[in-house]
Amino acid sequence: MRSRILVSTILVLVLLTGVALAKPVVNADRTYFDINTGLYVLNGNVRIEVSNRVVTAGQAKVNPATLEVWGSGGITVTQDDIYFTGDSVYVYGIKDRAKIDGGVNLSRNGLTITADSVDFNWRTRIAVFNGNVQVSQDGGNWSANSVSYNVDSNNFL
Q: What is d(CA 12, CA 5) in angstroms, rounded to the nearest whole number?
C-alpha cells in the first residue's frame, strides 16, 4: 500500500512539474491580464509559444494555468515542419490537442491538405481533417469528407 501511495505521489509531482515547465511566452501589441477570469487577453500580432509550439493570431485569450488558447484572425499553428493555418484555433495544451476551424491548410514538403477543420493531437501525431478535404501530394490530387493523417510517418490512415 505504501509503495502505491509513493508511486502515485511521484507520478503527480512529475506531471505537475511538466506543466509548470511549459509556461507560455506571450507577446502581442496589446496585452491585458483579466484577473477576474485568469486569462491573458491579447490583441494585434499575437504570438504564443509553449516549448517548440507556436500559435499566431490577430487576437487571442490564454489561460496560463491550463495552457488553453482561443485565437482568431488569421491563425497559424507551427511545430518543427508542421504548419497549419486557419480562421480560429482552440488549443488545449495540457491534453496536447488543437482544433483549427475555417479554411484550414496544412503545408509540408510535397503535401498540402485543405479542409473546413482539423483536430490535431500532438501525442499521437495524428491530424483528422473534416469537411471538404482536398489533398495534393507529389503532383496527385484527391478529395474526401474526412481524412486522418500521421505527421510522423507521412501516411494517411
A: 11
